[in-house]
Amino acid sequence: MANERRVPMRILAIGAHPDDIEAGCGGTLLKYAQKGHRIFLMVMTAGDKGGSGGVRKREQEQSAKQLRAEKIFWGGYEDTAVPMGRELIQEIEEVVKEVEPHFIFSHYHDDTHQDHRNLAMSTITATRYTKNVLFYEGPTTQNFSPTVFVDIDQVVEEKVKSIEAHASQVKKTNIEDLSIVDVIRAGAHFRGIQGRVKNAEGFVPLRLFINIGL
Description:
Strands 3-2-1-4-5-7-6 form a 7-stranded mixed β-sheet, with helices on both faces. The protein is 38% helix and 21% strand. By secondary structure, it is an alpha/beta fold. Helix 2 packs antiparallel against helix 5 and helix 3 (86-99) packs across helix 4 (114-126). The chain has one domain (10-206): Rossmann fold. Strand 1, helix 1 (20-34) and strand 2 form a beta-alpha-beta unit.
């Protein structure tokens, strides 16, 4: 029936450090949340190599509220020491089993940061029974050629606010006179141009089902 209410989908975003998810797919999560879908985050470390772990966890919790996330699953690993292998795969599997997500977003495997690489490769195994799994990019991603795009123009300012919630990290780009907000805006424009819209996020799908409904 046309007026039948749709059951909200469950969306799981996985990141190695606080702010990875916001940078990679924050706009997409905001659009899902606006439509009434349920958002869950899994963050593997407190990012303690980039500052105080306690501060960064609080920043992540504040940002999660802006993303309308129901819950953050913390991995508890040491920053720069996220392992690739059975332990990490099983931990991701446990969260996937609990959330039963319709969509999963995670790092792309070609990345200069070992935490991102190891998490991406472990995610491939841990999400083997999930229908829709897509990889997002970050500032350290390499050789990323997205074929799936999400128009985030209406939520780009909210995405920026979710990044700004990570106040201790905003200036840490290692690029002179550019903040992480500048990098995020530039990336949104670039992927938008590729997708023929003003601002977009791009994804490389591991699996993507096209749902042809009524």
